[in-house]
Write a structure and sequence with these properties.
395 residues, mainly alpha, 434 Repressor (Amino-terminal Domain), globular, 4 strands, 60% helix
């Protein structure tokens, strides 16, 4: 007989309790209907509870998944630990497990809970374990970036550089430090220091391990520069085409590696074509933007990366609005059952009208000349440079 059991992360649970106004564990017991003793056993890092209890706690704390609680789980088979269907942390939740729990929180859109977990891990790491220190620091820097706290990200990065150099100057050539520097460069870029960020990304792009991530970020800088007001249209075009070339290389490389970062490049490629639509061939570029966003959303949905799923849905919605379309649904890859039923009822009510079957993710057509492409409406122009500038911020 098999029973799935999980252990939860105290910092993640406490953070969510604070966000939901739950003052103590007794109040959590009352709201979740999970016994106080069970709650306390699950977050002490040693004991595991039934997954059903963890789901009740997740519901009480208004999160979609037990992974937002920093859950780690195993399978108990006749009272002994066996091969798990998920990450197993031997002997309970170790520092590595806690750090993975923080990453799970971040990828599912609960970055506020990820920060205290990563900071707590840093306080527990042996000062002589420079490798673990830099790994945890890179995660913390990325969480601050995701929260828009770029000054704090840069501060943590600089402290890590000083600490690592004091321990061993050769550590500044290590892969662990280069990850810290990579995320620090993203903070620089978001703070407007494009020259400083570009210098780091150019250097990292020459290294095999960081090549595609750095090349992607160089393309992002070109997109931002192409947005500058009053920029000459020829220069704008050159920047956008250069960014598209870099992003296409990244997309194809990550696709071969089955890496979810392929979706990051697809979103940025969509942004490039959104901006190119203002300069030429609006119909063509808006259609490509739509297709890239749909592909990105499919990848994010398959990996259950909630934060990126939500942002991509918003981008699709904005794209439809700019094209003058009415949004039929917010998740093109998986249409809402109620929408499908409503569409079927509409079709049944008009027996004389034969509608063409469309692929998933296709925007609704507007009355007018038929498109030469099967199943797709002919996209309209973007509706002006001001509209494009305002909408593309979320793409």
């Amino acid at each position: 007989m098999r029973a799935q059991t999980v252990a939860l992360n105290r910092l993640a649970v406490v953070s969510l309790m604070s966000l939901n106004g739950i003052k103590d564990f007794k109040a959590l017991e009352e709201k979740s209907k999970v016994k106080y003793r069970t709650i306390m056993r699950s977050i002490d890092g040693k004991h595991f509870i039934m997954i059903e209890s963890a789901r009740l706690l997740a519901t009480a704390l208004n999160v979609d998944s037990i992974w937002d609680l920093g859950a780690r789980y195993r399978l108990d088979v006749l009272g002994t630990r066996s091969d798990a269907v998920g990450p197993v942390i031997p002997g309970g939740i170790t520092l590595r497990g806690e750090l993975q729990a923080s990453l799970d929180c971040d990828m599912r859109g609960n970055t506020e809970a990820a920060v205290p977990i990563a900071k707590d891990v840093l306080t527990k790491i042996d000062p002589n374990d420079l490798h673990s220190y830099l790994v945890a620091t890179a995660k913390l820097i990325s969480y601050y970036c995701n929260l828009g706290r770029h000054d704090e990200a840069l501060d943590v990065c600089e402290k890590a550089r000083v600490f690592a150099a004091a321990k061993d100057k050769k550590s500044l050539q290590s892969d662990e430090w280069l990850w810290c520097e990579f995320h620090g460069a993203i903070a620089k870029r978001r703070n407007g220091d494009h020259a400083g960020a570009r210098e780091i990304f150019v250097r990292l792009s020459r290294l095999t391990r960081h090549r595609w991530g750095a090349l992607h970020q160089l393309a992002v800088i070109e997109i931002i520069e192409a947005r500058r007001p009053l920029l000459d249209s020829k220069l704008r075009m050159e920047l956008l085409l250069s960014a598209e070339k870099k992003l296409t290389h990244c997309r194809d490389a990550w696709s071969k590696l089955k890496d979810h970062r392929e979706a990051y490049s697809r979103r940025r490629i969509a942004e490039v074509h959104f901006l190119l639509a203002e300069l030429r061939d609006a119909d063509k570029h808006m259609l490509i933007a739509h297709e890239e966003l749909v592909e990105a959303l499919q990848i994010f949905t398959e990996r259950n990366l909630k934060r990126y799923m939500d942002a991509t849905k918003i981008a699709l919605r904005v794209l439809f609005v700019i094209k003058g379309k009415q949004v039929a649904h917010t998740q093109p890859m998986v249409p809402d059952p109620q929408i499908r039923r409503a569409q079927k009822q509409t079709k049944d009510a008009s027996p004389g009208k034969v509608e063409e079957t469309k692929p998933r993710g296709t925007p609704p057509e507007q009355p007018g000349p038929k498109s030469t492409q099967r199943g797709r409406g002919k996209p309209k122009g973007s509706g002006g440079r001001a509209a494009a500038a305002g909408a593309s911020d979320v793409i």
